[in-house]
Amino acid sequence: MIITDTINQTRETIAQPRREGKTIGIVPTMGALHEGHFSLIRRCRAECDFVVVSIFVNPTQFAPDEDLDKYPGNFEADCRACRDLGVDLIFAPPTAEMYQRENLTWINVEKITDHLCGTSRPDHFRGVCTIVAKLFNIIQPDIAWFGQKDAQQLAVIRRMVADLNMPVDVRSCPTVRETDGLALSSRNDYLNPEQHRQGLCLNQALCRGRELVADGTTDTNIIIEAMRLIIEKQPDAGIDYISIVDNDLLQPIAAIDRPALVALAVRIGPARLIDNIIVEPPAKTV
Ligand code: AMP
């Protein structure tokens, strides 16, 4: 496994497998790797000849009051895990390498960023799209993997790739959870055991939403209110949003009459946790 921290070294390293006609896959990450990341890396390993993992905590996707300075990281452990998973190249640049001067060029995906995390993190997806586009330009992967855990990010990146005709096949993996249901996240490191216990309310609320849909409830207000009651039982939980949107442009919908994304963001103590599921409209009986 090769580890690079400059763009030039990275391009030189990838030139060889590319010449040999190998398919190049990338899993972009911010490090502090866990089983969620590993699921993406395993898929990439299974479906690509040359596997690149990028580790970069991208400052432009954090607002000034967010957790950039304390974002968890353990580079040695990440490298060991990547080696064990058969990764070929880790690209882990310092910030000054990725942003060599004041950044004046940004990618904004409209509409899909209007709701959900886009409301409370207005510049977040602009930072995400810009760094992912930079990584795509540096690595020029054939395939890139992203997690359904960050459903809005996945939708935004798919749209960016389509609108800008980027020659990358974007693939996704399902959300990996702890056995107790909490979606894995690097930010779970911020939680003490009691906060972790309270964090289970996200998955519990989503399960209740799924159950209501399965029982024939289609009114999204009713589903959202039932979910809210579950979250509000937890003393340290502060709801950022609970939303039900269509699974294409992520616009709020009044009824589950097409595939829908049920998504929520909840603050538990020091962590802002997000989670989501996709639900299908009830099958029509004839
Ligand atoms: P991050 O390091 O948080 O930027 O995440 C890097 C990639 O891992 C993104 O595509 C995430 O959606 C994905 N990811 C993070 N957590 C999970 C999880 N629990 N299950 C599946 N994918 C995940």
Quick tags:
286 residues; Rossmann fold; Pantoate--beta-alanine Ligase, Chain: A,domain 2; 2 domains; six-stranded parallel β-sheet; three-stranded antiparallel β-sheet; 9 strands; 38% helix; binds adenosine monophosphate
Q: Can you walk through the features of this model?
A:
The chain has 286 residues and is of the alpha/beta class. Helix content is 38%, strand content 20%. Strand 8 and strand 9 (271-279) form a beta hairpin. Helix 6 packs across helix 7 and helix 8 (193-214) packs antiparallel against helix 9. The longest helix has 22 residues, at 193-214. The chain starts with a strand and ends in a 7-residue tail after the last strand. Bound molecules: adenosine monophosphate (AMP).
List the helices and strands and how they pair.
Blueprint: E1 2-4, H1 7-19, E2 24-29, H2 35-47, E3 50-55, H3 75-84, E4 89-91, H4 95-98, H5 117-120, H6 124-139, E5 143-147, H7 151-163, E6 169-173, H8 193-214, H9 220-232, E7 237-246, E8 260-268, E9 271-279
Parallel strand pairs: 1-4, 2-3, 2-5, 3-4, 5-6
Antiparallel strand pairs: 7-8, 8-9
Helix pairs in contact: 6-7, 8-9
Residues 29-30, 36-37, 39-40, 146-147, 149-150, 173, 175-176, 183-186 line the site of adenosine monophosphate.
